[in-house]
Design brief:
By secondary structure, the chain is of the alpha/beta class. It is built from twelve helices and twelve strands. It binds adenosine-5'-triphosphate and magnesium ion (MG). Adenosine-5'-triphosphate binds next to loops. Homodimer.
């Protein structure tokens, strides 16, 4: 059988720096675990603009459509701030998401024990936390029509429309249930069915999809209560499925349970391809971090954890993903810290490459 294929788009700023560590880990899997990937690399964002005058070349788009998974670093930077909107680096990312139709955005909030003190919450609330928020990414109030600012009775009125079809709710729900099956078979769906029609439909459709996943324990929660519970007792959750707007807010909340932006991976999944794997793009939550780019001090862990998600959700290598996460846990427990993970007490931080070395040898 052919090796699974992976397209690496390192992008701009710290993107190439953190991706370099991932490439070394991919090589390690090939050499030490007999798990080889067909890796190709291409440009996205400002790097693509510099070469092609567009933030994503058509050939790159075609490649992204044909591989098993895309691994992306970060895009953008001050050098591109004054570009025309249509060629801004971020447009490259949006084009990938749109044309690959990546409708399920997976944002884990995972707290490594060694960093529990570093989190913004009390240690016993977050130690050992491992939850996953699935946010619907292509519909809802961000896209619904009508929208705009209109004049009514000599007054300006701002309008957005929350609109969901049952097909949109269903495909995201299937992705969430599939995920729950690969994790702990527990799913909480969040909406506001008490005040929103789309919430009533959401609850109905999720309940219908549940019939195909009877092994999963399903619960429903109003999203405002969900926000409270997420901060009060986040470990009660495993997978959370919610809409585009609530997901935006809830996933940022959940992210801050765990500490640094340099630790947070994400995945965006689409429909299954002919080989049964979902279309997929994996990327760290952080941006190109122009303030520290080129200095070799970025934390590569978010990008490495994004690759771990690819192992688990695109390549059916859950045990290898566990192994990689355990290596990260070990080096953190041994005290390895990049600058972003250091408290006021200070110390000498590891460089990006030194953190990569530590994980490779753990
Ligand atoms: P974007 O608009 O692309 O999200 P941003 O400026 O809002 O960009 P980031 O680029 O993620 O967000 O940077 C936010 C802050 O977090 C910066 O101070 C940056 O240095 C820091 N940061 C982000 N990623 C990392 C990382 N991997 N390691 C260390 N620090 C990081
Ligand atoms: Mg930002």
């Amino acid at each position: 059988m052919a090796n699974p294929s992976l397209l690496i788009l390192a992008g701009d700023g710290i993107g190439p720096e953190v991706m370099n560590e991932v490439k070394r880990i991919i090589d390690w899997f090939g050499a030490k675990r007999d798990l080889a990937f067909d890796v190709s690399e291409d440009l996205v964002g400002g790097a693509a603009y510099d070469k092609h005058g567009v933030p994503l070349h058509d050939d790159t788009m075609a490649k992204a459509q044909s591989v098993d998974a895309v691994l992306l670093g970060a895009v953008g930077g001050p050098a591109y701030d004054n570009l025309d909107f249509s060629v801004k680096p971020e447009r490259g990312l949006l084009r990938l998401r749109k044309e690959m139709d990546l409708f399920a955005n997976l944002r884990p909030a995972q707290c490594f024990d060694a960093l529990a003190d570093f989190s913004s919450l009390k240690k016993d609330i977050v130690a050992g936390l491992d939850i996953m928020i699935v946010r619907e990414l292509t519909s809802g109030v961000y896209f619904g029509e009508p929208r705009g600012i209109h004049m009514e009775d000599n007054m300006r009125v701002g309008i957005n429309t929350q609109r969901y079809t049952e097909a949109e709710i269903e495909r995201g729900a299937r992705a969430a249930f599939e995920l729950a099956m690969k994790r702990n078979k527990k799913l909480c769906s969040m909406e506001k069915a008490n005040v929103m029609e789309s919430g009533i439909l959401w609850r109905d459709v999720v309940t219908e999809v549940h019939r195909d996943y009877p092994e999963v324990a399903l619960s429903h929660m109003y999203a405002d209560n969900g926000a409270m519970q997420l901060v009060r007792a986040p470990k009660q959750f495993d997978v959370i499925y919610t809409d585009n707007l609530f997901g935006d807010i809830l996933s940022d909340c959940a992210a801050m349970l765990t500490g640094s932006l340099g630790m947070l991976p994400s995945a965006s999944l689409g429909l299954p391809m002919a080989n049964g794997r979902p279309k997929a793009m994996y990327e760290p939550v952080h941006g190109s971090a122009p303030d520290i780019a080129g200095q070799g001090k970025a934390n590569p862990i978010a990008c490495i954890l994004s690759f771990a998600m690819a192992l688990r959700y695109s390549f059916d290598q859950g045990a290898e993903a566990d192994r990689l996460e355990a290596a990260i846990e070990t080096v953190l427990a041994d005290g390895a810290r990049t600058a972003d993970l250091m408290g006021p007490e200070g110390g000498v931080p590891l460089s990006t490459t030194q953190m990569g070395d530590a994980i490779l040898t753990a």
